[in-house]
Amino acid sequence: MGQLEKLYQLIEEENIKLEILDSLPNHIDGMYLKSESSYPIIVINKKLENDSMKFKIVLAEELGHHFTSVGDSRVMFNSYTRRLQLDKSEITALKWATEFLLPIDRLKEAFLKMHNRQIDGVTQELEVPHEFLLARLKFLSHKFDYIDLDDKKAILLTTLPNICTIEKLSE
After folding, report:
1. Where is the IrrE N-terminal-like domain (predicted)?
2. Residue whose C-alpha is closest to residue 170's, from 147, 151, 154, 144
3. Fewer C-beta neighbours within 10 Å, C or N terminus of the chain?
């Protein structure tokens, strides 16, 4: 089952209504809406239907809001504290999306397949934009200095935003 199919399956399991609209306010790509009086809704901008990669990323981020957000994050910010809360909500949803679409095993496999040590090969293999991969690696860098790929290679996370693999020293 592909990633998009898994996202659709989660939407169905969570009884979320998915709506595709011609336009959204403030030129946004997606929105997650939930109130106590109705079922949750994910709204995606119709223009994304022609960009399957971006559609998948936005859908995953909006699902991230479903699984991680508390309260109403649709209210516009009117204070610095409110702005920080909204930013935290966006970061938490993005983290969920990167973990869902780029689990560590999938990352390792893509880096091991990387041809000519070009990051474009990794992003093509993972079917995500460079910025999304970088976000996943930044989240991982909060926990790890590196990720073992196999007995000989690792992804170094301490040099981000520069992404590199290293040869591990023999023990």
Report:
1. 12-138
2. 151
3. C
